Amino acid sequence: MTIQLIDDGHTPETVGGGPVASTAAGRARLVWRRFRRNKLAVAGLAGLVLLFLFAFFGPSLTHWKAGDNDFLNTQTGPGSDHFFGTDDAGHDMFAQTVSGMRKSLNIGLLVAALSTGAAGILGTAAAYFGGWWDKVIVWLTDLFLVVPSLLMLIILSPYFQGANWIVLIPMIALFNWMITSRVVRGMTLTVREREFVRAARYMGVPAWTIIRRHILPNISSILIVDYTLNVGAAIVTESFLSFLGFGIRTPDVSLGTVINDGSTFAGTDQWYLFAFPASFLVLIILCVNFIGDGLRDALDPNSTGVSAR
Amino acid sequence: MTANLVARSGSGSAARPAGSPVLSVKDLHVTFGSEAGDVRAVRGVSYDLHPGQVLGIVGESGSGKSVSAMAVLGLLPDNARVTGSVELEGRELLGLSDREMSKARGKDIAMVFQDPLSALTPVFTVGDQIVEALTVHRRLSKDAARERALELLDVVGIPDPRRRFKNFPHEFSGGMRQRVMIAMAIANDPKVILCDEPTTALDVTIQAQILEALKSAQELTGAAILMITHDLGVVAGFADRVSVMYAGRPVETGAVDEIYYRPRMPYTIGLLGSIPRLGTAGHGRRPLTPIEGTPPSMVDLPDACPFVARCPIAVSACQAAEPELLPAGPDSHPSACHRRADLESGTIPIDEVYPLPVIPETSLDAVPRAERQPVLEVKDLSKHFPLLRGAVFKRRVGTVKAVDGISFEIREGETLGLVGESGCGKTTTLMEILELVAPQAGSIAVFGREAANLSGRERMEMRKDIQIVFQDPMASLDPRMPVGDAIAEPLRTHGWSADRAAARVSELLKLVGLEPYHAARFPREFSGGQRQRICVARALALSPKVVILDEPVSALDVSIQAGVINLLDELRAKLGLSYLFVAHDLSVVRHIADRVAVMYLGRIVEIGDVASVFHAPSHPYTQALLSAIPLPDPRRERERSRILLPGDLPSPANVPSGCRFRDRCFKYASLNEAEQVKCRDEDPTIVARPGEADHATACHFAAALEVV
After folding, report:
1. What's the pLDDT tens digit per position in A104-129?
2. Within a domain: B362
3. CATH number of this structure's domain A2-299
4. pLDDT one-digit tens code per residue, B359-404
5. Would the N or C end of chain A have less CB density within 10 A of its end CB?
6. Into how many domains does chain B fold?
7. What residues of chain B lie within 8 A of the CB of A213, using their CB?
8. Closest Cα partner for A124 from A35, A293, A2, A298?
9. Could you tell me how many CB contacts below 8 A there are between chain A and chain B?
10. Interval B447-483: pLDDT, tens
C-alpha cells in the first residue's frame, strides 16, 4: 500500500479518492488528508495532471505533426498557426514539444519509479533478511557501481536498435539504482533493530509485509527525494543518449532532444526554440518536486504545518 | 593517601564562617525562546546549600530540575535567558563570562552527569582525563598530578588504580565510569558537587556502590551536594533536605523527614503514593494512587496553580492564582498549595487526597495454584552465542552463555516476575520464548504444546496467545503509523476484516483508558504513559493468554508508572491474563507479581512466591539485590545496613567455575576453606527450601535473611 503511494505518487488515479484510499486501512486515508492540506503539493499534483492531459490531447490542438516540415514557414516566431514557432527545417515547435513531452514524461516518471523502486526493494531486502540475501545484493550493487553505466548503455544500444523507445526505460533504470540502494540498506539496518519491527515479527507479520508496512514508510523520505531527483535525471540522461545517437532518433522526438536542438538558440532571436520546451521540463520537475515534498511531509508525523488543527 | 585529602579539605571548610551558605540560588528563572513561544523552563527557584549538606531536587521529566542545575553552572545554550542570582561563597556567578566561569567550573563547582559513557571522552585514557581535570585548575607537575589521580581513583573505589589508569573509558563498566566521573568531580576539592541523576542509568547493586562512593567522596571533601533525581528512594537515604519541583517551580521544600512524613502539597502526596513499595506486608496488591493527567506545557502558563488540572482537591482559588511557596503552619515547611492549611490541620487526611482505585479480583485468585493450568513452561532453556574473532576467517574463541539452563512455569492468571540486572539474560530469555522455535537446549511449551514441534501454521496460531509489551513505548510503536493501524496490525495479520478490526480497536482503546478517536493520531501526539497504554492495547488485541512485559514501566515517570501498573493489574483480573513481567525494579515486581524468579548470569538463583522471596530471601544475591534498593522512607533507610556487592557482573563469556556468584558473594568470604572449595568446584543446583511450599534457591549455604 505504501510502496504504491511512494512510487505511484504522481498518478492521480492511485493517490486520489480511488481504490487505495477507500479500501486500505487508516494510514492511507490519513496520509491523503495530510497531503491535501499542503497547497503546493496539491498544486503540483494538479499541474502534473494538466501536463499529462496536455501531452496526450495537445496534438489535437494543431494540425501539424511532430515530423511535418512546413517549408513555407521556416524560422518563424510564435504565431496563430505555429503556436511555438518553427525551426530552420520548418518543424512545428508546438507539435514537437507536445510529442517530446509525452515521451519524456513517461521516461522520467517510469525510470524514476523503476530505479527508486528497485533501490527500495533490494536495499531493504538486503538489510532486513541479511545473510545470503545481503551478500548477493551488495555484490550486485557493487558490480553495477563499478561498471561505467554510460559505456554499457552505448555497448548495449545496438541490440535494441529497432526496438521501441520503451526499452530505454528499463535500460536507464538499470544503471541508476545502486547508490540509493546502498543508502536504503544502511537506513534499513537501523530501522530493523527498532522494537516496533520486532513487535511485528512476534505478532507473526510476514517479512515482506513488515518491509512494506514498517520499514519503507520510515525510510520514505530518502526514497521520495530520490524519486523526484531521478525524474529530472532520467529525462536528461535520455536526451544525452539521444544526442549521442543511442536514444530516441528522428523523426521521433523527446523533450530532451528538442531542448538539445534548441539550446544553441537560447540567446538569439529564435529564443522560442529553447524557451518553450525548456519551460515545460522545468514545469514537470517542479510539479514532481512539490508532490514529493507534500508526500514526504504527509508521511512524516514530525513535520509541522500539516498536522490537523 | 586519603588522610592527605581530608586534611586539605578540613582546613578549607574551617576557614568559612559557619552558617553561611556555600551556594545560594535566588529567584532563578530560565526561559528558552521557541517557535511556539517562550518556554519558561524554570520559574523562580531559590535554595541555600550549606557546606556538607545534601539537597535533593526531585521532579519528573520536564520539571526543570536539570535546567536549573545547568543554569548554575552556566552551561545552558545561548537561546536561554537566565535571570535571578546564583552566588558561590558570596560571588555572583550569573553574568560571568565563559572564561571566568571556566575557572569556577570543575574547581569550586563540579558536576556528575547521568550518562557516564558520554561524559567521558572515548579517545583519552581515564587517567589522562583525571590529570587534565587537575591540571586545568592548578599548576602541578606531571608526576604529582599522576599521583593525585591514582589517589582519587583509589578513593572512589576503583580496584588496581595503577593498571586502570591507562585504560580507556570503553574498558570500564557503567558503574566504573561513574566512579571515574566522581573522581574527576572531587579532583579539585570542590565546594559543591552537582549530581544530575547520577545513578539512573545503573543497576541497583551498582547504584548502591555509587551512592556509597559519593557519600565517602563527600565526607572527604566536605562538599555540599545537590542531588537531582526522579527517584524518591535515592533521596530518602541520601539527602538532608528535599525540594520537589513541578512545572519549573519548587512546590514543596523541607527537611527530608518533613517531606516524606508530612507532605503538604498534593503533588508530593501523589508522588509518594504512586511508588510501589518493597515493605508492604502481605500480598502486594495495594493499588497505587496514580496522578491523572500530564504536566502542563511550559509555554503560556496561566496564573493558576500548574497542578490544578491533575489535583483531586482543587478548589476555585487554585484556578485564580498560582500559590506562593509558604509554610502551611507555624512549625511546617513551605509548600505551594492553596489548601495547605487544610492538609496541615487534617481537614483533608493525607491518605485520602487521592481516591484509592479498586482493582477487581478474579475468580482464579481463589483457585489454589496447583489446580490451575500451566500456560507457559520453560525447561532447562539455554542460549549460547559463539564469540568469534578474525576478519576473514572467523574462529570461535569462546562462548557467551547468555542463558544457561533456566526453568520456570507460569500458571493461569498468574504473574511471574523475572528479575535481574542488565546482562543477566532476561531479555535473551524473552526473545527465545517469543521466537516459538526449538531452543538450543531445553524446551518451551505453551499450553502444554512444545514450541519445537509446531508447524508454521500452528506457530502462527500460537502467536495469538502470547504477546509482548516492550520497555520503550516510543521505540515499539512505528512513528509513521497511526496508532489505530498499530493496534489493528495483529488483528489484520491474523485475518480480521477491516471493519471488525476497526471495531475492536475502539474497544481496546477504551479498555486501556483512551478514546476511540485517538486511533487516527500518530504516536508522537501521546505522552509516554499513553503510548505504553497503546502498546498494551496492541498486545491485548488478539485476547492472548500470556503477555510478556519487558520492563513496561521503567521508561516512565513515577506518577505515570503507577497508572500503567494499575492498568496491568486491572486487566489481569478482568481478562484472566498471565504475565511474565521482566524488570530490574524489585519494588514494581513486589507490587505486581505473584511469584518471582531472580536471575544472575544466565541462571535463576532463587524462585518462589513473592512473600517468601522478599521476606526470607535465602540466596546471597537476592539478599544483596533487595538490600540495595533505596526505600522511599527516610527513617527506615537510615536504620538499614546495606549489603554492598563488590565489583560488577562478570561477563557471561567468562563464567566463574562452581557457583557463578562466588567472587562477589559476601557469604563466600565468610566461609571456611572446605566450604569455599565446595563453592568453587560445585555448581549449585536449584533446590526447594525445606519447609516452604514455593521457594527454591541455588546456593550451597542458603539461609534466610531479612533485609527489607
Report:
1. 888 888 999 999 999 999 999 999 99
2. no
3. 1.10.3720.10
4. 777 777 777 888 888 999 999 999 888 887 776 677 787 888 888 8
5. C
6. 2
7. 478, 481, 489
8. A2
9. 79
10. 888 888 888 888 888 888 899 998 888 888 988 888 9
